[in-house]
Specification:
The chain is an all-alpha fold. The chain is 69% helix and 0% strand. The protein has 14 helices and no strands. It is elongated. It starts with a helix and ends in a 45-residue tail after the last helix.
Amino acid sequence: MNGLINYVSCGAFWTGLLVRAPDLLRHRRDPYLRAICAVLGLAGLCFFLGAPPTVGAINRLSGVPNLAAPLTYAAITAYCAASQVLVVHWRGGPGVRRTARRWLLAYLCVLAGIAVTFALGDTPVERRTDLDTYYATTPYIAQMIVLYLVAHLAAVTVTAVSSLRWARRVRGGLRVGLTLMGAGALCGAGYSLAKLVAVAARWSGRDWSALGTTVSPAAAGLGALLTVTGVLAPLVTPRVTRWRRARRTYARLAPLERALDDLLVRRTLRLPRPRLASPAARLVWRQTSIHNALSHLDAYFDRGLFDRTRAFALETTADAQWAEAAAWAAVIVTAVRDEADPGRVPPTHGSGRLLGRVPGPAGLVRIADALAGTAPADPVPDSTPDLAPAPVMPGPPAARSGMPAGTARTGAGSGAV
């Protein structure tokens, strides 16, 4: 009687609505967003109105026994209409608006039927949880109960079939979301079916009211959880994928940063480590530190060593990108050693100035793989977005410019790193 399942389910739906609300504010004319926000809002309202404490409050404040019942049924019917409009927009094609209007008109008729049958019927005894079975044989009230249950069953069945059918045609987060929404709609069908069976049992003289008071709320609560998760999945999945990719790339860059660690510490080229940062922010921090070190080492890069190493690796592996990475690894290790030697001065002829072909984000990962002695089994796209900012040089020794972020240029016929 405390309505915990109802209020938790209501909170879940309205949380999903809050997450979707910014998109709706930015795209007010998008019919799909309007429909999905209406579904979330009305579904939460159904659970709120159906909670026993809310039922008691409505009945007490209105002075009409069981007035909460037609209000809840009306909310369920409005939810059904929004669901059908959402499905229509999913399907698309010609006549979307016309089909949506027909569904709305049909459910407006259901709303009118609920209002009329409740007005004609008589429900003198307040029932907060088992009104469906208690009044299943009462004239007009029985028709109202069957009307809203059949309307709800039709809506969730169409939603489930459409969601699961569409899920087979898509991939990624959208497929996960549609599958979860389809499963949630199936649970909604379980809610209606359990209540219809309990009502039919009452018609035959049996008391199966437990189906309506225990099974139905549980099915509805599970359906709410699955539906909200399905709505949010397409929003969350891309972000989680980006975080996983950033975390994996961050880990793969560790050998390259370790090779540059002494230089980064001595020359104070490493920026402060971000705290409580996202994987993408930590990746930017590591990439920036690496770029700062490479900029400082520019004068120590041995172009001859680069060309010889690259030619040998290319002849051995026939992989231009791997050969380029191996050449960079060789000159970086040599440049770090030469720069640490106090008696060593930067070469002035025939060496240095390799940063015109600085490796991009994917190239840095391949260099780190080369330093680790492993082939890059999981390539990182060269088009990795916003993960390689222009280097920020914290000290005078590294005050160099002209390092393009996220680009990679090589010599003729060598390919990008």
